[in-house]
Amino acid sequence: MPLPSPLPPNAGALPFFGLTVLAVEDSRFFSECLRLMCRRLGARLRRADTLGAARLHLRTYRPDALLVDLGLPDGRGEALIAELANDPRRPSVILAISGDAEGHRSAIAAGADGFLTKPLRNLDALRAALQAHLPDRVAPVTSGTEADPADPMALKDDLSHAADLLASDPDPSARRYLASFLAGVSMQSGDRALEAVARDAGKSGDLASLARLVTARLGASAIL
Question: Which pTM value belongs to this model?
Fold first, then answer.
């Protein structure tokens, strides 16, 4: 029988040491933010960027916690939450994530245990949401509450992906998704100008201004 892995010297400061988390999240930038937060808390993060990829993952693996973005390329996150709500292999914690606070009601109705609003920059918000449903994990966090800054290359990847989709003449459904995607990315990155244009595009369906601003952001990142 193999011996258990020894705990790290600072395990007492890691309330979720050994916890496995699956993030169903289309933004690489936000996923990187989550990964850094989970690492600070002692948890391991895996990512699925679509509902389809998440379902494939869940056929084989059972994470301890599931974080589900509500707006995904191939559908709504509530659908996956509802599928798992009464599943015998349901993760111990299911949390919904969205930049739209209106999603709270639909996520809870689908079976989510809690709801996190983007942007998510404070470590305590994620820790509290997990601890509310894992009462045995009570060790304090001593390394601070502010999350580490995410890799700017992950942000550039998100913008490049959006630029490719914007250039592909998306249909109305894809236009709404793109506007929502970029609003969420810009909220997490603190880009208020891009967030405002993305929200306007989501209401009007006109992506021309949004495409120009994304191109400008990518041009600026190439200079840095």
Answer: 0.88
